[in-house]
Structure formats: structure tokens, C-alpha cells
Amino acid sequence: MQQLTLNQLVEITGGKLYGDENVTVTMVAPMDKSAEGHVTFLSSPKYAKHLPECKASVVMVKEAHRELCSTNVLVVDDPYVAFAKVTQALDTTPSPATEIASSAVIDKSVSLGENVSIGANAVVESGVNLGDNVVIGAGCFIGKNAQIEANTKLWANVTIYHNVKIGKDCLIQANAVIGSDGFGYANEKGEWIKIPQLGSVVIGSRVEIGSCTTIDRGALEDTIIEDNVILDNQLQIAHNVCIGYGTAMAGGTIVAGSTTIGKYCIIGGATVINGHIDIADGVTITGMGMVMRSIPEKGMYSSGIPLQSNKEWRKTAARVHRIDEMNKRLKAVEKMLEGDSDS
């Protein structure tokens, strides 16, 4: 169990403490379930009414809410960011591997940095370069000539294909597949002819990739994921896609080939993005968005249909099917009205 003093919390968050710096905490908890030994936070003003009764050893709040607290208070600029930093400091998640397992298969040509850990039954092929403190979980496959830089961690059963490059301080969750073939085929008189995917995947530093996410290698050039990108579970990133610095993509999103997504974009879950288009920096797409064309300007975009009762939805669907007919009738009425005004 990790334990931190409130003085250590000040150092971690950069906040200002009002209370006893020697009090210790061992875990982060929701405000309504917190108790002695817990640290909690207020991220939404609507919950401020619960501050006087909060039983946590310390509450992280903005200055505006300090006087409402009846316990030790840590005033911070952004309580949610402070929560993230404190959670990291208290994290007790075990490592995917802690040594080089005897059952791991490692080619003699592999370059190993200092303090590398490789789990049971992992396979590391020839020409691979693993940086300092890299952790490879049980059952992972690292293909020929792949490069993984310092402090990157792979959970169990991750597959990294040949020639893939992964930067520093990345985290890749279980069963992700990076560098599989892009979906490239030519058709000759009804017969599919596979196009070998000769590019690779280049992933920057401080990138996180969720479980069961797949990132295809490029056809001729590389698929590129820039620094500080976070990808949720079960995404499909097709060949030659480029994702810019600081972009976040939620679960179930599909990005078709040769699309470029700018910096600091936020893509909601289950979004589908067409191929060969460009999305500007700073674009937010809400959940279930269907992006068919390029988005040249930053802003928020939506296209998913909100949930209705089945009865309402059936009426909506029926009207959608009649929209062409309704449009023709509307134009006819407009034309008629224009004729009447001319007379």
C-alpha cells in the first residue's frame, strides 16, 4: 500500500495546503464514499454542497470552494488534473513483467537496454532493439527489426509486427496489434490481388493505446501516430493514417486509410471517419459521428442520432425515407407561391 503525506501532495500537485502537512493518505476516493486516510477532489461545482460533510483526510478544490471544506484542504488550479497526478503517485498496478522469463524466446541478435523485463512465452525476433526499462508482457510477439524506446510498457499478448517503431514512455494495453497489413487489394476481373503493405507504423512518445486496438502498417509510406496521443480500446486505424500531437480518440472509432487527423482533436466513441480526408487541428467530433468529408476548421461537429422511443424512431425513419418526395412537394409549393406573387 502506497502512503503519502499531505506535504508530499503539495509537491506533486503544486497546490497550497490549508491543514496538517503530516497527515497521511493511502488512496483516492469519491467524495461521497471517502473516509479518513482518503484524498478526494471536487471537479464539478454541482457537488460543492457535499463539501461540509466530506470525511476525507484532504479535499483538493479550487480557491473558490476552500471555505466550504471542514477538513484539510489542498487548493489547486485544476482538481481533476491534481487527481490524476495523485492517482499516479498512489498507483499499485503490478508490472506486466519483472524480469526476463526463462520461457521467453529472444533472438541472440536482439539489443537489450538496461533493466529490460520480458514475460513468460514472449517472442522477440531478430534485429529488435529494446531501450532501457522496456517491459514486455507475457505472450507478446515483437517482429523483426522493431524498435521500442525507453520506459515503454506492453501488457500481455501485444503483437508488434516487423519494422515498427515505438517511442519513449508509451503504454500499450493487452491484445493490441500494431503493424498488421493495411486493407489493400486490386481487382482483376473479379479476383482480388493483394497489395503488399511495404510501409510501417511509427508511434511517437507518451502514446497510450487501448486493448484490442489495431493500427495497420502503411502501403508505401508509414502510418504515423504522433507524441502524446491517447487511443481507447477497440479502435481500427487503417494504413497511412496520420494522427497529430495530443489527439484523443474514444472506443470503437474507425479511421479509414490515408486520412490525416490534426493536433489536439477529440474524437468521440463509435465515430467512423472516411478515407483520404483531412481533419483540422482542434476539432471535436461527438460520439457516433460519421465524417464523410474533410473538416477544414476547428470546432465541434456532430451527426449521431439521439435515442428515441421505438415509436418515435419509427416515425422519424419513415419521414427520412420520404424526404425526397417531401422536398419535391416543397419546391412545387414554392414555385406556385412565386407565380402568385408575380401576378
Structural summary, described in words:
With 343 residues, the chain is of the alpha/beta class. It folds into three domains: 4-90, Udp-n-acetylmuramoylalanyl-d-glutamate--2,6- Diaminopimelate Ligase, Chain: A, domain 1; 105-301, Hexapeptide repeat proteins (UDP N-Acetylglucosamine Acyltransferase, domain 1), CATH 2.160.10; 310-342. It is built from four helices and 38 strands. It starts with a strand and ends with a helix. Pathway: Bacterial outer membrane biogenesis; LPS lipid A biosynthesis. Belongs to the transferase hexapeptide repeat family. LpxD subfamily. The active site is at 239 (proton acceptor). One of its GO terms (molecular function) is UDP-3-O-[(3R)-3-hydroxyacyl]-glucosamine N-acyltransferase activity.
Report, as a whole number of angstroms, the end-to-end distance: 87 Å
- Oligomeric state as shown: single chain
The CATH superfamily of the largest domain is identified as Hexapeptide repeat proteins
Largest sheet: 10 strands, parallel
Strand content: 25-35%
Number of helices: 4
CATH topology of the largest domain: UDP N-Acetylglucosamine Acyltransferase, domain 1
CATH class of the largest domain: Mainly Beta
Number of domains: 3
Mean pLDDT: 96
Rg (CA only): 26 Å
Number of strands: 38
Which ranges are low-confidence, i.e. pLDDT below 50, for 5 or more consecutive residues?
A: none
Name given to the CATH architecture of the largest domain = 3 Solenoid
Strand order of the largest sheet: 8-11-14-17-20-25-28-31-34-37
Overall SS class: alpha/beta
Fraction of helical residues: 10-25%
**Gross geometry:** flat
